[in-house]
Amino acid sequence: MELIADLAVQGVQMALVLLLAPLLTGLVRKVKARLTRRQGPSLIQPYRDLLRLLKKEAVLAHNASWLFRVTPYLVFAATWVAAALVPTFATGLHFSWSADLIAITALLASARFFLALAGMDVGTSFGGIGSSREVMIASLAEPAMIMITFTIALIAGSSQLSTIAAFMLSPEAGLSVSLGLALIALVIVAIAENARIPVDNPATHLELTMVHEAMVLEYSSRHLAMIEFAASLKLLLYLSLIACIFVPWGLAGHGAGLGAYAFGIVTYLAKLAIGGVLIAVFETSIAKMRVFRVPEFLGGAFMLGLLASLLLFVVQSQ
Amino acid sequence: MSAFDPVTVILLVPLVTAAILALISDYHWGARLNVAATFVAFVSACFLFAARPEPGDYIVIDDLNIVFIVLSTFVGFTTSIFSASYIAHEVEAGKLTPTHLRFYHAMYQVLMFAMNLALIANNIGLMWVAIEIATLTTVMMVGIYRTHEALEAAWKYFILGSVGIGLALFGTILVYMAARPVVGEGSDGMVWTVLAGQAQHFDPALLNLAFVFLLLGYGTKVGLAPLHAWLPDAHAEGPTPISAVLSGLLLNVALYALLRFKILLAANPAAIAPGPLMVALGLLSLTFAAYMLYRRRDIKRLFAYSSIEHMGIIVFAFGMGGPLANFAGLLHMTMHSLTKSAIFFSVGHVSQVKGTQKISDIGGLTVTHPWLGWGLVVGVVAIAGLPPLGIFTSEFLLVTSTFARQPLLAIPLVAGILVALGALFLRLGNVAFGEPRGPVAPAKASYVPMFLHLALVLTAGIYLPAPMVAWFQSVAKLLG
Amino acid sequence: MLIEFALIPVAGLLAVSLAAILAGGRPSISAPVYGASAILCALVAITGLAAMLGGGVSTTVLPVGLPWLGAHFRLDALAGFFLVVVGLGGAVASLYAIGYGRHEREPWRVLPFYSAFLGAMSLVVLADDAFSFLVSWEVMSLLSWALVLAHHRENENRRAGYVYLMMAGFGTMALLLAFGLLSGGSGGYAFDAMRETARTPAIAAAILALVLIGAGSKAGLVPLHVWLPLAHPAAPSHVSALMSGVMTKVAIYGFIRIVFDLVGLPSWWAAMVVLVLGGATAALGVLYALMQHDLKRLLAYHTVENIGIIFIGLGLALAFQSNHQTAGAALAFTAALFHVFNHSLFKSLLFFGSGAVLTATGERDMEHLGGLIHRMPATSIAFLIGCVAISALPPLNGFVSEWLTFQAILISPELPQWGLKLSIPTVGALLALSAALAAACFVKAYGITFLGRPRSKAAERAAEVDRFALSAMFILAGLCVLAGIFPGFVIDALAPAVASLVGGQMPTQTAVPWLSIVPIAESRSSYNGLLVFIFIAASATIAALAIHRLASRAFRRSDPWDCGFPSADPATQYTAGSFAQPIRRVFGTLVFAAREKVEMPPPGDTGPARLHVTLRDLIWDWLYQPVAIGVTVAATRLNALQFLTIRRYLALVFATLVLLLMVLALWS
Amino acid sequence: MTPTMPQTIAMTGGFVFDVAHLLAGGLVLVSLMMLYQRRLYALLNVFALHALVLTFSVAWQAYIQDAPHLYITAAIALVFKAIVIPLALHRMIVQLGIHREIETAGGVGLTMLLGMGLVALSTVIMLKVTSEADPLAREDLAFALSVVLLGLLVMVTRRNAVSQVVGFMSLENGLVLAATGAKGMPFVVEISVAFSILIAFIVIGIFLFRIRERFDTVDVQALDRFRGEMS
Question: Residue C488: helix, strand or coil by DSSP?
Answer without folding.
Answer: helix
